Amino acid sequence: MDNNLLVRLFGFPATLIHWDPMVLDRWRWLNVRFPHGQPRLDILDVGCGGGAFTIGLARRGHTTIGLTFDGTSHCHAVERARLCHASTASFRICDVRHLDAASDLRGRFDTVICLECIEHILDDAKLMRDMAACLKPGGRLLLTSPNADYIPITPGDAGPFWPVETGWHVRKGYTAARLHEFCAGVGLTPRHVTFCSGFLSQKLTWGLRTLGRRNHLLGWAAILPLRWIPPLIDGVVSRLTNWPGYSICLEADKPPGAPPP
Fold first, then answer.
1. What gap in Å lies between CA 162 and CA 148, rounded to an integer?
2. How far apart are CA 98 and CA 126, in angstroms?
3. Which of 18, 85, 188, 252 has fewest C-beta within 10 Å?
4. How far apart are CA 253 and CA 242, in angstroms?
5. For 98-146, how does the pLDDT look when each residue is reduced to its tens digit (9 = 90+)?
6. Are the C-beta atoms of 200 and 233 separated by less than 8 Å?
7. Is 197:246 a contact under the CB 8 Å cutoff?
8. What is the DSSP letter of 258?
9. 119 near 159, Cβ under 8 Å?
10. How far apart are CA 93 and CA 235, in angstroms?
11. C-beta separation of 25 from 230 below 8 A
């Protein structure tokens, strides 16, 4: 099957439904932090995968660079950017464990985004330090990662989390206190810590994964008609059920007077 068929047919919105419903939740969280009419920003997307967020922000008028270690994802991202007419989006194959080796990225960006990537990296403190170094003074880091207090969606979410980087998560997630510690260690000032992907998004993801064990396309098609529900009422349902968000979301600033990296 053509991995970009939906993008050819429906454009950018299709980039947000290739995987589970929590991808759209993260885009909605990110999207409101880049209002229409905002001046053009230079944005680095660390761990961009198939490029949805890199492309979406480019379509807002920003100049974006997406980093992925995987050649296949890189090819998909480049093609999706072309199909979505996101001319200011570009992509680079880069192992973010060695982000510090990309000297041309240091001190260059108004915003660095890192959505659901850091939990795959053993030396997470180094990645935080390297991302902070890519920011201009006065720049902003936007990061999401699994919440340490989430309720496992499927058994694999409960662990074990191996002490080697296999492509899967090397830890369950993060607390607000841990993210604040990271910020203090790399010279960032935390602004907000929030959560996204509540009860309904998580249950639809359970359905996708469970049916997808037999056939991913079957699971994807089964939940497709229900994807519109979480954006409308997931916040209310999650509050009523006291259900923890799957992702913890950090906004942090680099002080305007910070010295160059």
1. 16
2. 9
3. 85
4. 30
5. 999 999 999 999 999 999 999 999 999 999 999 999 999 999 999 999 9
6. yes
7. yes
8. P
9. no
10. 36
11. yes
Nearest-angstrom CA–CA distance, 92 and 75:
10
Q: Which two tokens stand for residue 240?
A: 């009523």
Positions in the chain short of pLDDT 70 = 1, 260-261
Half-sphere exposure of 139 (CA within 13 A, CB side): 26
For the chain, the structural domain boundaries read 5-197+245-253
Query: Which residue type, as a one-letter code, is found at position 251?
Result: E
Answer for the pair 146, 116: CB distance below 8 angstroms, yes or no. yes
Alpha carbon 170 to chain centroid distance?
Answer: 17
pLDDT in tens, 214-239: 898 999 999 999 999 999 999 999 99
CATH classification of 5-197+245-253 is 1.50.10.20, yes or no?
no
Q: At CA 163, angle to CA 145 and CA 245, rounded to 5?
A: 20
Q: Are 198 and 230 in contact (CB under 8 A)?
A: yes
pLDDT at 261: 67
- Residue identified by tokens 């935080």 is 128
Cβ neighbours of residue 1 closer than 8 Å, sequence gap 6 or more:
217
- What are the structure tokens assigned to 193, written together? 């810590």
What pLDDT is stored for residue 66 in this prediction?
98
Rounded CA-CA distance 207/15 in Å is 20
